[in-house]
Amino acid sequence: MKTNTNRLFFIDAMRAWAILMMLQGHFVDGLLDPIFRDNGNPIFSTWLYFRGITAPVFFTVSGFIFTYLLIRMPQPGMENPRVKKGVRRGFQLLLIGYLLRMNLFGLLSGQIYDSFYVVDVLHCIGLSILAIIGIYVFSTNKSKFVFPAIMLGVTLLLFLFEPIYKQWSFSFLPTAIANYFTKVNGSVFTIVPWLGYATMGGFLSMLFTKYKDSKFLYPTAIAIALTLGTSLVFYSSKGFIWLYNATSINLFQMIEQNNYLFIRLGDVFLVFAVFMLLRKLMTNSSILKIGASTLTIYVIHFVILYGSFTGVGLYRFFDHSLIPGVIIPGAIAFMLICTFLSLKYKEHEPELKVQVQQVFLKGKAQGIELYKTTVPILKEVSMKVRLFLIRVLGLAKN
Known about the structure:
With about 400 residues, the protein is mainly alpha-helical. Helices cover about 75% and strands about 0% of the residues. It contains 16 helices and no strands.
């Protein structure tokens, strides 16, 4: 891969890896019998640790890709075509996130279950995109350092003050909104602190854009990522203890007691380093296709595993009941099936969109025809009813 290319193949490969990790992670976590969840088992503990890396990598890469495409456009602020596309994409992800948690049978019976309002990864990524757009527009016509400074500042603020705001119940907000900030009602992810990984990804993309033509880009980036990653994973907790002892600020002690955000950020840097190191092997077309199809893969896996819309999925029949001998080949098959179906959908997506558009246009034409036919009839019926009421009211007055 040449350093001056506009396509960062290792980022697509990271996204492909993250979505596949998410598929097997959801499958194993949802269907494995609790009796086999032994943290003392090196195989299970290793799997559990790497599963914890998946979401931070996914959020960071999502922020990286969107910001990278956003700042490549020469038009500033609202004139940037990526702003409009990003707003549309953000709201699209929010809509899909809610649709995936909708139960059609409950809807037909006039019920909307509480699970519909639960916030998941798509909601948070959608809001993260909208937040990045907001920061970008705000930073327009300001110093070129404002945008990256705010992006990095958001990450640090969300990560540093997480021990404080995670205690807030947000009970003063409606449940549907509070779910974006607290897990009390069952939300899997919340916009705070997960927005911090997306803004960090955006900050990293700005560094890559600035130094994209440097022949030392990758050697320098790999060395920095390895150094930061190792430091955060192995020494960040000790660093916060040192800060607490030096300043007596309780916040640093609270961070150290549950220092998962900075440690996971270190893991993200290490994953970046590995994929940058192997970037020349990341140009396989299948890997790139998977990386570009993460949304459809996510939707398909949600329908098959959790039974979106109908409530009938693998989780309903095998909830925490399978043994490792079934789970392992099952997870592999699950990843292959979801990926295959997604790539087939992407292959026929243009045709399907044309068919959907034709159905929409046909329905629209029929609706207009029905409107033209029924309006005169409704007017006539309305006039007769009006005359009837006038006569009745006239008789009553007499």
